[in-house]
Amino acid sequence: MKSLMYFAAVEFPDDPNVAGRKYWYGCPFEDAEPGDEVLAPLGRHNNLQRGVIREVRFSKDYEAPYPVYIIKYIKDIVKKQGACSMYKIIEKRELNPTVTMMDIYAPLVARKAEPGQFIILRVDDEGERIPLTVAGYNRKAGTVKIIFQVVGATTMKLNEKNEGDCIADFCGPLGCATETEGLKKVCIVGGGVGCAIALPVAQKLHELGCEVHSVIGFRNKDLVILEDEFAACSDKLTIMTDDGSYGRGGVVTEPLKEALASGEAYDKIIAIGPLVMMKFVVATAKPFGVPVTVSMNPIMIDGTGMCGGCRLTVGGKTKFACVDGPDFDGYEVDFDEAMERGRMYSAFESHAREEECNLFKKEVK
Amino acid sequence: MAIEPKKHPMPVQDPKVRAHNFDEVALGYDEKTAVAEALRCLNCKNKPCVQGCPVNIDIPDFISKVKESKFEEAYEIISKSSSLPAVCGRVCPQETQCEQKCTLGIKFEPVGIGRLERFVADYHNTYFKGITAVPVSNGHKVAVVGSGPSGLTCAGDLAKKGYRVTVFEALHLAGGVLVYGIPEFRLPKSIVKKETDALKEYGVDIQTDVVIGKTLTVDELFEMGYEAVFIGSGAGLPKFMGIPGESLKGVYSANEFLTRNNLMKAYRNDSATPIMHAKRVAVVGGGNVAMDAARTALRLGAESVHIIYRRSMEEIPARREEVEHAEEEGIIFDILRNPVEILGYHNPENKRDEKNGFVTGIKVIKCELGEPDEQGRRRPVEIPGSEYVIDVDCVIMSIGTSPNPLIKSTTKGLEVNRRGGIIVEEQTGKTSKDGVYAGGDAVTGAATVILAMGAGKTAAKAIDEYIMSR
After folding, report:
1. Chain B residue closest to A355 (CA)?
2. What is the 3 state secondary structure string of B385-438?
3. What pLDDT is recorded for position A354?
4. Is B253 at the interface with chain A, CB within 8 A?
5. Average pLDDT of chain A to the nearest whole number
6. Of A3, A30, A170, the CB nearest to B207
């Protein structure tokens, strides 16, 4: 007996009696996608009618969208919807000029994703595989939120996609989830686009009843993201900008140091952001002996523990961020080495950017 | 008619030309040569070659069809036993399998069985225009984890028996090591695609981007109605030596170097995935993967490529043809050498020097062969004081892999051995968990394509018996 299966919401546009309504069916076809045309039994007489799948859900029988003991099953897929794959961009929003948020339809990933885990995506069939940390998920709607900074050729290409477009691959959730169990009071330190990854961790801790203090830092006012979201899940929120154009001026370690010095008893500090920021958070926390978890985001290819490109030195041992991480004990990580390795392809990336710019120039002519 | 003492030579691209392109090295027999080579087969009664084949292809039978120029019939005979003939004809170590057992080989060179298999498969792929007969479904569902050689074989065999098979692949492309590991010049990816497409025609459903152990667990596959699961997830994390300098920029694992190049096509100018085009390269290790990495580095434009191997040419584990091809192309074999340190650039004056942290050389120590170890291979013994430095700007570590931890850490009741390999019954591939079977590198650690296929085949038979007996 199946207890875990696909369900599909089907619309029958050809039948005037039910047009505009959606009905949930059991779906025995694992490759069913929204947009597929199917044959399904409809009405009292169970006449087979042609309909279109509008939504696919993957869940346990007790979470089924319609009681499983009376649900009907799709008979057949008549027409695959073709070009567009599963991974549709449901929502796209620019958080600031260089940071974009997207909700991607990927029900299998959404079902399992936890804060701290990451996904690997490819924009198109010729594209590079890049890791992005999960910035949120909606299990019911089957979407996973990603937030990315436009820095290289691939993120540039991803940013050109709009709502309704699809991306070629979206694989996950990978890596280990951030450990949240048993924490009573935590300081979340986020830097720049790293705040996007820190947010779901803060939200989860908040839900679990943990006292959350957040310190988030940005270069200037224009780059501040997710302020409202952090405010909603933090018991105390400090916003820092390097140039003082918003919130408090300075770097994130300043308020952290003050809090620690004033005797705030954090069980843990979770730092997510640029390597150099995480390095200094560790240095700040060390005299107070508070444990620090950092989230590493090294260069990756497969993300499943096969290539070894994401290796780091942690506690003198070689570790792989994709299967052992991405979270590590901040005191053990060799940050200098990680920073060095992160620059391996910087020449290649800047070359890609230049090429893009030259193309633009040509078009302008 | 007197027997030709030697195999008909395999036409190959000129070494000087091929060292700079990614086209296939061996070009394959034409029809005339294939028939002439087939005629060398004595068609012996006891068929020793069949015993040498891990998937027991009826070799003399298919060769006698080649003799009669009935190539399509020959293909049918091979495909009864092998799901991936075009692949095996290219990458199997025939010299230690079927061809080693060949009766002709006692006095002369053995029949070129691998070359004939490749010819027959290529002939079929080029000329066959018919429709594959899809077997009638028996209503049972089986899940296969991993679309490498063992998974595809298991899936193919079960699909031919009427099972509805779904293959789950973590990467975006089916083929496993055949697409990310073995380079284009040894196994063109178009051939792998043809073989996987052929399986799809048999009704096998291949789901990419699904990581079993993460996206779905093995237990969830059972909950989804699959009656049995075959795990062919392959080898996992690359091993490193633990010597200083392994984290320098320019040090790759062979897996990373080959994945960037083969799966992500980094050798092409239009690829979005970067790779280092190093001038002087050292590859550590002596297996097939090391040969592949070395020859790939050469084709990416390296001026010199060293293979650093701690034993002698006698013990080198790579397929003989690959070693020969590598030598012809100008790869330097530094045998009886063991790396002790990788050296990097460091400018104390300028911390922002762009060259900081990049590899500049590899320090190796000379070895001599000592007493044989447990496996009978002579152990390399380092000669004290014999260290010297080879100037290189890229080091590729190709010293093996350890099994991927994702499945064992998320599957209750699945026992693994000390090295992390899944424990199975050898005759059936059955694991300690009911309904779960395994095979290939996930069980044995790094081995060959054909051994993995043999394991997939064994498991398919056992899965069929298991489901039918329920």
Report:
1. B270
2. CCCEEEECCEEEECCCEEECCHHHHHCCCCCECCCCCECCCCCCCECCCCCEEE
3. 56
4. yes
5. 87
6. A30
- Cβ contact A128:B275 at 8 Å: no
Domains in chain B (CATH in brackets) are: 15-127 (1.10.1060.10), 141-236+403-468 (3.50.50.60), 240-399 (3.50.50.60)
Nearest to A216 by CA among A150, A197, A206: A197
Instruction: Assess whether pLDDT exceeds 90 at residue B409.
Output: no
Look at residue B147 in the predicted model and tell me its pLDDT: 94
CATH number of A89-174: 2.40.30.10
The predicted-structure confidence for B18-27, as pLDDT tens digits, reads as follows 998 899 999 9
Q: How confident is the model at residue A364 (pLDDT cuts 50, 70, 90)?
A: very low
Q: pLDDT tens digits, residue range A161-206?
A: 998 888 999 998 999 999 988 889 999 999 998 999 899 999 999 9
Q: Six-digit token pair at A251?
A: 């770097």
pLDDT at residue B358, as a whole number:
92
Residue to mutate among B209, B218, B246, B271, with most A CBs inside 10 A, is: B209
Can you tell me which residue has the tokens 């691209």?
B13
Looking at residue A355, its pLDDT comes to: 54
Give the helix/strand (H/E) hosting A157.
helix A153-159
Q: What was the pLDDT predicted at B28?
A: 92
Q: Measure CB to CB from residue B240 to each of A169, A170, A318 and give the nearest one.
A: A318
Rounded-to-integer distance, Cα A124 and Cα A104, Å: 15
Asked whether the predicted pLDDT for residue A69 surpasses 60, the reply is yes
SS3 (DSSP) at B142: strand
Tell me how close the Cα of B63 comes to any Cα of chain A, in angstroms. 39
In CATH terms, the fold of domain A185-342 is Rossmann fold (3.40.50)
Q: Where do we find the tokens 């790939």?
A: B296
Would you list the domain boundaries of chain A?
A: 4-79, 89-174, 185-342
Contacts of B411 (CB under 8 A, 6+ apart): B213, B217, B218, B219, B433, B436
Q: What pLDDT sits at residue A360?
A: 44
Q: Is the dihedral of CA B414, B418, B423, B425 positive or negative?
A: negative
CB within 8 Å of B333: residues ≥ 6 apart: B306, B307, B309, B313, B326, B327
Out of B210, B255, B264, the one facing A128 most closely (by C-beta) is B264
For the cut 70, the answer to whether the pLDDT of residue A4 exceeds it is yes
Q: Which of residues 110-169 of B touch A (CB under 8 A)?
A: 166
> What are the angstrom distances between the C-alpha of B50 and each of A53, A278, B59, B119?
51, 61, 6, 18
Closest C-alpha to B342, from B258, B412, B415, B281: B281
Nearest chain B CA: its distance from A298 CA (Å): 13
What's the rounded mean pLDDT across residues B413-439?
90
